[in-house]
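DM from R.C. (forwarded with permission)

"hey, sorry to bug you on a friday — could you get me a structure for this? deadline for the figure draft is monday and I only need the backbone to look sensible"
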Amino acid sequence: MNVTLLNLNADLGESFGPWEMGNDAAMLDVVNSANVACGFHAGDPLVMLETVSTAASRGVSVGAHPSFPDLQGFGRRRMDVPLPELEAMIVYQIGALEACARVKGMRVTHVKPHGALSNIACADRKVADAVAHAVHRLDPALILLAPAASQLIAAGRELGLPVVEEIFADRAYLDDGNLVPRSQPGAMVHGAEASLKHVMRMVEERALISINGKRIPVNPQSICVHGDNDDAVATARAIREGLLKAGFELVSIPRLLGAE
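My reply, with the result:
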């Protein structure tokens, strides 16, 4: 019997200064891969180093989580940045995390855009191309972790980047495959039980399932649990246990592609 490989990831390292966000230590006991904030929407140099160090001690792979420069808005506000400047910002952020990883004997293996940057890149091919170009120019072996059924997936594949398709455990989908905006009712899937049910339907049917019941065929490879939710750790644990019970094997993002 062939065992299907899946990845469980979380957006972490989102504290900065005296402000604490989430329970990274607990999440790193559950997930296989961490998307680490690079200082533009959250995180700071010390937090980045500490997050990478904890990930290393747990055997968790590390990826960069670049964003628009928006600490006040947590990277969730749209910014109209010229594309060459946007590419430079992404390279800068990945490079910062790569330095932190090197100090801790780790390496950055994937890149996942954050918040508004990701949402825009999912729908706008020009922005998607800018993100993919930035990653490719820095290192064409970096894995692009991108939302399933998005323009970002297409942009990465066109450049020949290794791409992993991501689905969200705690977010609802529109009929076009994009996320329901957080400003709208029903955007979030609340609680461990509801999130697990949401994930299992998508994984088993190999499709995004919108709030209206529309199914969009995808290849779910990685499942994200947002680390800033109050019930994030409980949700991640429930999803991990549910997937293992269903016979899936949970591995790091590089191992999904045989790169580890």
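R.C.: lifesaver. The chain has one domain: 5-256.
me: no worries. The beta strands are 5-12, 33-37, 61-65, 108-111, 143-147, 163-168, 207-209, 215-217, 222-226, 249-250.
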